[in-house]
Amino acid sequence: MVTFKKFTDFPRGTLYDILQDAYSYDSRNKEIWDGNWHESDGFFYDNPDIAACCGLVTCIEDMPVGFVTWDPRYRPEYVEIGHNGIRERYKRKGYGHMQLAEAIRRIKEYEGLQRIIVWTNANLAAPKNYESVGFRLYDRKPNDSESAYTGDYLYYEMRL
Known about the structure:
Elements: E1 2-5, H1 14-22, H2 27-46, H3 48-53, E2 55-60, E3 63-71, E4 78-86, H4 95-107, E5 115-121, H5 126-132, E6 136-141, E7 153-159
Parallel strand pairs: 4-5
Antiparallel strand pairs: 1-2, 2-3, 3-4, 5-7, 6-7
Helix pairs in contact: 1-2
């Protein structure tokens, strides 16, 4: 059974652990993003009030298998989805779709919100997941960074 819980229901390091597992299919991901993953994990555990309203952990029988975060600071113009990942073992089973759909449901509760935005890379599975819940591509830019192997940057929005 899938449930959605708060970050604070789990120990510090849980978000980091999920991210490194979710991106374990290519060792370059950890090399490039390790610092960002640690920083994101620390931020949500250092700010439990923000964690309580701007993210969720997806669980199967109380085991954390994924999570998603969002940044509401630019309301009412938009809310931006941040990290969104599922452990490698649980990918391609619909859990990422369920997680994203639940995040969107919660984000839509903000009064007067105009749109939800997110960016990802072309060579990942994420674009299909975002499109499956109603996001539309509105921009694409070349990726000339050290993460170019992940493909161009894709920018999506969901107008409300």
